[in-house]
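Protein in question kept underneath.
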Amino acid sequence: MSDSQSTAWAPAPPPPPPPGFNADEFFSGIHWHQQWELFQGVTTPGRNPVGLLCDYMGVPQDLRGKRVLDIGAWHGCYSFECERRGAAEVVAMVLENPENVGFTRLKKALGSRVRCVNQSVYSIDQRVLGQFDVVLFAGVLYHLRYPLLAIDKIRTVCRGTVHVETHVCDQYFLPAGGDAPRPLELVHPDLPKVPIWRFYKEDELLGNWSNWFGPNVQAVVEGFESAGFTVEVRKTWVDRAAFTASAQTDLIYALDRTYEGQSADNQRLIGLTIPSDYAWRH
């Protein structure tokens, strides 16, 4: 066996910082969420470790030849990590102005080829974006008022796997009335097996008005299954969980016998392309 065959491919390590690089100055003015090694010995000052969370979600080390979509990229650290892992193309989808969240700053410092699109998961359009081998969906699901619509939209552009990280309520269920959170099984032992989407009308979850739903693990699994994925629960910890969802059934078949599938308006909303000879079941 040759040396090239016996040695597994691995991403290149972070480059050294450029001459005169001042980390304090570079990171100032941004509220950093993601923690990622930008240069050797220089890490973005967030608290969410990107490399570790990629491992939890099952993101492959070797992404050579893959098209990657990072939904809710924010600073873009997951996007840049995928580029470092050899992805052929990375599209970072952000709602925010990339200048204001540090994305542009990091891209310029890295000389990155990651492409930023300023749009919502709800506006995903296969005709514009094409298909992706790998989709990252980290820290987004619980911020959405329409989580199943988002999952359907993701299915229209995913030809491979979606790597999901999200808040879950299994160990952090908030009862009504402001009582302290408790494990779901203490409310009733059967509830962890039932798909639950705990709706937060205000800022009940951690004082954050952008948190809308607290699904349990079963709800995440069945939500993605309903859009034509098979799902692996990879890890749960405290009030978080990580999953890998693999595209299997085409969305058109997954939504058979649903109003979403059979309504022309809903088809357009989701982005379904209906074969001319497709016969809906009744």
Observations:
- Residues 16-249 form a domain with the Rossmann fold fold (CATH 3.40.50.150).
